Every structure is written in C-alpha cells, then in structure tokens.
User: Fold this.
Amino acid sequence: MIDKLGIYGNAKQICSPYFNERPDNVDVSLLVIHCISLPEGIYGGKQIEHLFTGCLDCNEHKSFEDLKGLEVSAHCVIRRDGTIEQYVPFSKRAWHAGVSCFDGVEACNDYSIGIELEGTDKSVYTQAQYLTLAKVSDALINQYPLLTKQRIIGHSGIAPGRKNDPGYLFNWSYYLSLLR
Assistant:
C-alpha cells in the first residue's frame, strides 16, 4: 500500500511544495492526528488543497488573513467522505507540527507523519474518516517499525496550549480499536 518512495497507493496525489528531507539517521516513529477546514466548519472546498499547495487566495475569506505567507503541509488529508489526498510522501518531512515536543524530543516534523482530518476541534468525525484513518494507520505501522499504536497522538499532545486538534469529540478508543 505504501511504496518505497512513501506514496500511499489509495490516495489522490497532490504535490505540496512545503516539505523537505528528514534529517539523516532519523526514522519515522510518530503519527500526529490533526484537523482542518477552511473556512472553519466549511467542508468539501478546494481551500485546504490551495493552502497546502501555496495557491490560497487569502482575500477570499476574512479568516484567511492570518494565513498570508504561511508555508504549511501535511502528509495526508482525509475528507469527510473518507477519500484521502496525499500532499507529501511519507518518506519526506511535511511541515505540519510547528513548535512541538513528544516524549522529550522536540521538532516532531523530523520524525513524524501528519494526517489531517477534514473537520474542526469541536466537530464529530465521520465513520468513513475513522475507517480510512485506521486503514492508512495500519499501513504506516506496517511500513515503519518504530511507529506503534502507543506513538499515535493528537496535535494537542505535542503542542499543548497552542493546539486543540483533533478535538475533544475525536473518539480515540474507537479509532484505536479499528487498528490491527
């Protein structure tokens, strides 16, 4: 399901310019779950794609003003219907975590994979999203030996006080129960 270049075969491929190489001798060992919608609470548009590809018109909506000049990406976005878009190969470093720390190790982008769920930190996620997230998570755990169920966390867990996603309505026990 994931090839040697880090491409997930079941995803629509959309190339983000916002990534780079991982540091030498750093292996993938963390999965970070995020959420995103642009504008907040509006689903199905092209704005997420435009943000991650550097094409977002920041004049389109007043909430986009803070996004001017932002260079950000995630490895994948899982839409409300469960479809998955891959913006950065898993083998590369996406720019999703920002200032972050897990288990005493800073700069989580270096060793993590970031998956965005289309939603808000106050929204309920769809069954299709949980099923797709579990499927890609299983593939990642199979591909990267240091990545385990115990090393899956929300953005809020690596940037406490700064980030809230995926939010209090994300059903962690259900999601983890879906993993093989």
The helical segments are 47-52, 127-143, 155-158, 172-178. Residues 155 and 161 are 10 Å apart (CA to CA). Strands lie at 12-13, 19-20, 30-36, 76-78, 84-86, 93-94, 101-102, 105-106, 112-118, 152-154. The chain is about 20% helix and 20% strand.
